[in-house]
Amino acid sequence: MDNVLIEASGIDVSFGGRQVLHQGEAKVGEGEIVTLIGPNGAGKTTMVRVMLGLHTPDMGIVTRKPGLRIGYMPQRLNIDPALPISVIRFLSLGMSRGDVGHGFRHGVLRETGVEHIAESPIQQISGGEMQRVLLSRALLRNPDLLVLDEPVQGVDVSGQAELYALIRGIRDQRGCGVLMVSHDLHMVMAATDHVICLNQHVCCAGHPQTVSRHPEFVSLFGESVATELSVYHHDHDHEHDVHGDVISHHNHGHDHV
Question: What is the pTM assigned to this prediction?
């Protein structure tokens, strides 16, 4: 892939003598959505932290495209409930005034569908709204690569489908790469171009349909899950939610790069 934004290879990480990653690898190209999946403790967040430069691996190499701009959406953010702060003000925290003018902040909130809560206290917004605000904050840097750690956490099923559709739409409009972490197998299989299944090492990787049939995937998640996932890909002009209902596409086609 000539348009690689970021690539990690041979990543080994241990904490307190316990190895959490062995020979981990992942890469994301321009306009590509790559998702890390795996059980709890599989090393997904550790892999992301290594790729972001937040943790130095014991072994391995991470290469990034020169000048790469990364927008990061963390798994969770603890906000002091006693701190009165509006959504629009929250977006400016930790950013220089020149980087995020008022109009620019409103623009990213509009892009993620939550401009109407710009002046709302951030402690009073819903879980789904909070995820969109965190996504907006990641977009403020006009990133080449979006890194999203469990982006649909705390969001109901219909909201998850909408959020994944939004992420795909942002990818389509901006042409950025996306690296996601998820344990939500059903939704993510329809929302990604490439899946990397981790369980301290790379169990399998490839197109979602291929990965869902891989023996290591089946042994990790069970035959019933693998079978259920495989039927989601019988036709490439639509997708299904967890109830089997068709998820319509708005202004974008099927997302294969």
Answer: 0.81
